[in-house]
Amino acid sequence: MKVQLFIPCFVDQLYPQTAFNMVKVLEKACCDVQYNSNQTCCGQPAFNAGFWDEARTVCSKFLKDFEGADYIVAPSASCVGFVRNYYSKLFENSSLHNQVKDLSSRIYEFTEFLTDVLKIENYGAVLNAKATYHDSCAALRECKIKDAPRKLLAQVKGLELSEMKDVETCCGFGGSFAVKYGDISVAMADQKVKNAADTGAEVIISTDLSCLMHLDGYIKGKGLNLKTMHIADVLASGWE
Q1: Domain tally, the chain
Q2: pLDDT by residue (tens digit) across 108-152?
Q3: pTM for the full predicted model
Q4: 221 and 132, same structural domain?
């Protein structure tokens, strides 16, 4: 099965190891993993800031870069959710409408691809830790992802997973929201981290590094004994 990777901007620049771990997991599942080095951004930052014309230019390039790929897989529900739900608005009544519709049917967040397309839940991962899972807003509300990550984590040997209180509540990041409304954003992170810590977890796991980056910044600022891990890093743990 041929899989084309989409690596979001912040993953490429700040967390490249997560991208490499995603490749390891996909290759273990016998996927033919390909990467188009011409790829750039999905266009979400410009769109969210109100620069729709500029976003449309970036999104047009995205359509071209991933034309013909059987499956497009990304370690970010935020980017996948944007492509699925907002490209149709940007290109409504345009000549690219059908191309957008086709692209939306081929792009997947990493965990849903593993469980819904590959239909494999156990990747032989080992991680001896107590953990809790954070539902990102994009995964939960834009991609309708709830069970897939939990099914995968349930198969990780040595991992003890506990649900936190208010698990579906936002962590407070929200892209530019964290900059424009810093005090509110920090308060939301405080609540999320407290709920995670109350489970006795040592690790917070999620599908989205944007959330984890925000939470990790708060955790380090407070000197708390908690780590954050993207689920791709978890699934690539403990291999011989």
Answers
A1: 2
A2: 999 999 999 999 999 999 999 999 999 999 999 999 999 999 999
A3: 0.94
A4: yes
